[in-house]
Amino acid sequence: MFSKILIANRGEIACRVIETAKNMGIATVAVYSEVDRDALHVRMADEAVHIGPAAASQSYLDIEKIVAACKQTGAVAVHPGYGFLSENPAFAERLRQEGVYFIGPPVKCIEAMGDKITSKKIAAEAGVSTVPGHMGLIADAAEAAKIAKSIGYPVMIKASAGGGGKGMRIARSDADVKEAFERSKSEAAASFGDDRIFIEKYIEEPRHIEIQILADGQGNCIHLGERECSIQRRNQKVIEEAPSPFLDTLTREKMGAQAVALAKAVNYVSAGTVEFIVDRDRNFYFLEMNTRLQVEHPVTELVSGLDLVEEMIRIADGEALRWSQADVQLEGWAVEARIYAEDPYRNFLPSTGRLKRYRPPAAEASAHLVVRNDTGVDEGGEISPYYDPMVAKLVTWAPTRIDAVDGLAVALDQFEIDGIGNNIPFLSAVTQQQRFREGLLSTNYIADEFPDGFSGVALDDDTLLTLAALACRASFQLETRGFIEPTPLSSGHVIAERSVLIGDKRWDFSIPKSDESFVLMTDDGQPLLIEDGWQPGASLTTTEIDGRTLHVKMDRVTSGFRMRYRGADIIAKVVMPHVADLMRHMLKKTPPDMSQFLLCPMPGQVVRVDVVEGDIVEEGQPLAIVEAMKMENVLRAERRARVASLKALAGDVLAVDAVIMEFEAV
Questions:
Q1: CA 123/CA 131 separation, integer angstroms
Q2: To the nearest 10°, the Cα dihedral for 629, 631, 634, 635?
Q3: How many CA atoms lie within 13 A of 230 on its CB side?
Q4: Whether the Cβ atoms of residue 410 and residue 548 lie closer than 8 Å to each other
Q5: Residue 425: CB partners within 8 Å, gap ≥ 6?
Q6: Cis peptide before 451 (omega within 30 of 0)
Q7: Do residues 159 and 144 make contact, with C-beta atoms less than 8 angstroms apart?
Q8: Would the pLDDT of 486 be above 70?
């Protein structure tokens, strides 16, 4: 077995590989850029080597620096993780030249499957179903439009060397093709150093379902079932699960057999994933093969009981597969939610900054529920603009799908992150949607269910009453313990009366005398028994109200609490009833009108400005492009106007809400 492994990656996947290597008794080496000097993966590894500045091109993508780190530390093998150099054949070949093992497939497999055009030709020759499209390279936008017409709209324009949702655009008309071609080509060049583009038919109401395979150097190959990856935003997976709620046994067997056939056709070795697009009638078509470990591999591990990182290491060391296809037994259901540093209330724009609070739910492993959090950060760490915005992968397993989804919902309730924007409210909202709970998924799910973006969740009246009661009790606890100034108490059998305001709703509570329990009485005489509950200084409370258990994030604000639960983010004000009577007469503050400005929606760099001062722009017209976390974001005009002045130029690095240009009415 290898004595020492270098992990040519960072963040969550580096930590994941280090954990398995340590369990196998293998020493580990981390590499890090300047901004990752204090990162979690650096602290977890036995050794760490600095490989350059923050920019990935000068650190994690620099092959010679990785090779030098291997020589410096004596690492005999390299695990590339995912992203960065994981599917770069030149990297695998360079390691081979230095006598360092690459924990992944042979160079020829990476070359064949890493190029989407070549891989589709090989798949077709191996009898794998493929999507209709143009497999040749495309010279320019005019040729792209001609090809798209021949295939028939809608079409998907893709970077040949693409991945992770980058360099991909849907075009539904000739007008769409030009911009989609240019943006895909630009993103591909920036992300992969390869701007080749191809076009294929876009499948309506598609599902993204992939098959995990394992192959050794002795010609053995098995599959470990499928993963459903249809919940996506901008072609980036958000929620994955295993198995798929859509496939039947026959379709699963056919997809598995074709995935194995493709792997054998290229003499594949190591872990790999064959991705398919599946239509409403369960027809499936080869999409691509990822010659690496997938981000979503934990759901397969939980249903199969295998450690895929360990299997990759053993295979790279020359071992034969320890299982045949008949040995593979998939049990239960696993669901994974990717937690991103992005603001769902601002169209999921990237968010950077320091993690002032990072407290994931406690790990759990029982016959009824498993909770697992794969992460590469901890409290006090910083999310930088230089790398992928994923913070963690929260995964749950249970015997049934609905139990796994419910377990995920509770774990999201318990996951505390502050200091950066994050998508936990959005993920929580999805777990409560009936369509998701019924497994009626497609890659259009987010666009269909959130056509106007995400603005939070409107909780039902019973849940709001429960949260109001919790806020009332918490406020009363502060009073009785002297944390806030006490208010006059009532007389008789009632200790106090309070009103709770959430938005335009109001609840009036009375607190009766009781030596044994805390009970609130609503204004209609309904008693609410509150057990456990919030404690001063706590940011998360687990409470039981009339037998209903809730996990609510709570922070003190003026006259009340900020409460976050199941995708809702609310302010509950707790006041005396007569104060509540007066508050309805108070004027609401109107936010300033910023419609005459184009603001930078996220920290990023201006790639291009498409207008000049004096131009008249129309609604929907592209105005500028801002790059953040390796993605190009096109900013468009919201209405017809004249560009009065430009405040930023291409190359400028801007903070969130920085003014890019100012408009005037026409």
A1: 11
A2: -10
A3: 31
A4: no
A5: 344, 345, 454, 456, 457, 564, 567, 568, 569
A6: no
A7: no
A8: no
The pLDDT value recorded for residue 167 is 80
Alpha carbons 284 and 206: distance in angstroms, whole number: 9
Starting at the edge strand that comes first in sequence, how are the strands of the sheet with 4-7 ordered?
47-50, 27-32, 4-7, 77-79, 101-102
The Cα 506–Cα 394 span in angstroms is 36
Tokens representing 125? 């020759």
pLDDT for 564-615, tens place per residue?
999 999 999 999 999 988 888 787 777 888 889 999 988 889 999 999 999 9
Length of the chain: 666
DSSP state of 135: -
Q: Are 576 and 450 in contact (CB under 8 A)?
A: no
- The β-bridge partners of 24 are none
Can you name the residues that pair with 163 across neighbouring β-strands?
A: 166
Q: Tell me which residue has tokens 């994923």.
A: 390
Residue of 420, 227, 443 lying closest to 340 (CA atoms): 420
Q: What is the distance of C-alpha 150 from the center of its chain? A: 35
Three-state DSSP class for residue 341: coil
Q: At 643, which amino acid appears?
A: V
The CA distance from 419 to 437, in Å, is 31
CA distance 371 to 378: 18
* Amino acid at site 141: A
Say what the pLDDT of residue 165 is.
Answer: 67
Q: CA-CA distances (angstroms) from residue 647 to 606, 632, 661?
A: 11, 20, 5
Burial of 342 (0-12, 13-18, 19+ CB in 10 A): buried
- The DSSP output letter for 175 is H
pTM of the model: 0.84
Of 229, 231, 284, give the one whose Cα is nearest residue 253: 284
Cα 100-103-105 angle, rounded to 5 deg: 110
CA distance 604 to 312: 37
Chain-centre distance for alpha carbon 381: 18
Active site residue 87: no
The residue from 12, 288, 336, 632 that is catalytic is 288
**Dist CA 1 CA 354 (whole Å):** 39
Cis peptide preceding 89, ω within 30 of 0: no
Give the tokens for residue 396: 């749950």
CB 95 within 8 A of CB 101: yes
Q: What is the pLDDT of residues 20-56, one digit of tens each?
A: 999 999 999 999 999 999 999 999 999 999 999 999 9
